Amino acid sequence: MTPASPGSAAHTTFTIERQLKADPKRAFRAWADPASKQKWFACHGDWTTLEYRLDFRAGGSERNYTADGDGLLHAYDAHYLDVVEDIRIVYAYEMRLGETRISVSLATVTFEPSAAGTRMLFTEQVVFLDGYPDDGMRRQGTELGLDSFEAFLERDAGGVH
To answer: Which ranges in 18-126 belong to alpha helices (H)?
Structure first.
């Protein structure tokens, strides 16, 4: 992939709120437990997982490498900066298509008790690099991933996370 605008940086921030039918402890565990997170994290269920690992702690990291239907690598590498059990997760991550870095982000996820179970806020500050044309796809992909997260919580309501 050849950069369309070498050196450019396009910034955006978005917040997604979800009312979850799970308590904050269970919602947080679905992010923290590697086996649980791998089940819901992909926004494209038909892609092939090449590598997945999660070391969930402040100073830890996460890697999710997948290949789309054409075999193109979609690489996600995250570093956990702040973790407050059952309350907050802050992490930075980069995404690559093949060998080309397309974005770098800072994400914050908070969990607050609510009448329904948990009010979760996901906020992402992202910079798209070198003319990468996101056109709202990052937010859409995040929405799909959070849809999968909610379905996971509802499907595994009786399970231990």
So the answer is: 24-32, 34-40
Nearest in space to 144 (alpha carbons), one of 69, 47, 63: 47
Q: What is the rounded average pLDDT of the residues 53-61?
A: 98
Q: Please tell me the distance from the alpha carbon of residue 81 to that of residue 56, in angstroms, as a whole number.
A: 10
Kindly report, residue by residue over 7-32, the tens digit of the pLDDT. 999 999 999 999 999 999 999 999 99
Q: Is the pLDDT confidence value at 75 over 90?
A: yes
Tell me which amino acid residue 122 is.
F
CA–CA distances in Å: residue 39 to residues 20, 21, 45:
17, 18, 10
Burial of 51 (0-12, 13-18, 19+ CB in 10 A): exposed
Coil vs helix vs strand at 21: coil
Is residue 156 very low, low, confident or very high in pLDDT (cuts 50, 70, 90)? confident
pTM, two decimal places: 0.91
Residue 56: closest CA among 74, 82, 20, 76: 82
Amino acid found at 63:
R
